[in-house]
């Protein structure tokens, strides 16, 4: 009876939730990408192309440093340490540590180096492509196996037959439902905006707001004397007028500016003199 309780306690202590194991992999990838981005920002200070040919070596040094200060020292990656997970020490002797380094650091460097420097070797590139496709397939199979068993989420863990253990014992992961609620509310708000904004006539609202804030209404009179010179600018975009047109007042618009606003807003007014008309005429230079 006592032995049974002891075994049960040991299973609970070594239990690691699947979500923690998957999140540790995501955290490791994010940490690596973050460090690579920092290194790229530092290298931007140097002359262009000075160290571009050493990109595989730079990534190799970075991955080696991460492996040395995580797996070799603490028997856990940085992502696993953040989630209180570690490998079983008795499952990682010196030989397996060396093999783990070979699989996680040396082989990726060899692949990147071949892809970077042996681009003219078509047979090598085809072999690398076949190897990558095989790895994708094996990772998929191992992922379904992990979902069923709850152990060894990565292909390296499966090959080396190493398991995780929880440093917090049987402590379960707490979920912040307040964060999930905020995300759901924000997602619903964005969907509402995406649905309603296309129905809002922005040009008409802008015109009505401008008329509402104006203290004195401008006189609504027509002035057919259109002024067009070399320095004439569009009354709407304030750029040199292209295909000059007017709407009945003396101000000149680009063809696209006037036509687009009249199509978007049936009550479009001249934004200079507030003249309102459905006229659309080409400016004729006499």
Automatic annotation (TrEMBL):
BP terms from Gene Ontology: protein import into peroxisome matrix
Entry's Gene Ontology cellular component terms: peroxisomal membrane
EC number: 2.3.2.36
GO molecular function: ubiquitin protein ligase activity; zinc ion binding
Location of the RING-type domain: 234-274
Transmembrane feature ranges: 184-205
The organism's place on the tree of life at top rank: Eukaryota
InterPro entries, per the entry: PEX2/10, Pex_N, Znf_RING, Znf_RING/FYVE/PHD, Znf_RING_CS
Keywords recorded for this protein, A-Z: Membrane, Metal-binding, Peroxisome, Protein transport, Transferase, Transmembrane, Transmembrane helix, Transport, Ubl conjugation pathway, Zinc, Zinc-finger
Topology in the lipid bilayer: Multi-pass membrane protein
Membership in a protein family: Belongs to the pex2/pex10/pex12 family.
Name the record gives this protein: RING-type E3 ubiquitin transferase (cysteine targeting)
Lineage of source species: Eukaryota, Metazoa, Ecdysozoa, Arthropoda, Hexapoda
